[in-house]
Amino acid sequence: MKLRIPAIIAAAFLVLAAAGCTSGAGSSAARLDTPSRHVTNGLMLLENQKTDAALREFRRAIELDAAYSPAYVGLGLAYGHQGDLKKGFSQLQTAQKYARNQDQKRQVKEAYQRLGAMNRGQGHD
Length: 125
Description:
By secondary structure, this protein is mainly α. Helices cover 74% and strands 0% of the residues.
């Protein structure tokens, strides 16, 4: 099943754009090693069917910020893409717990809908 996540990618770009509005201090490598950057990379990798690489990106985002909801959304979608819906839904529960604003809550809701569609696609109710 091909996974389409354009709305989540768009939201990730908005998060990235907001994060990019910081001062110019610090190295460029440090600016690239942010949770939002890793989630954006992970979503692009997931869209290109590179699930293992996407999982690494989402995990790195969590290493940088253990309460970063979009990273758990990404993990949930990646696990769902691999067919492990139970693990995917578990990650979305964590994402919901850490959702800090309406945009993150919306991302969680959309991810639940996508995993639900994957679940129905596999013949589960």
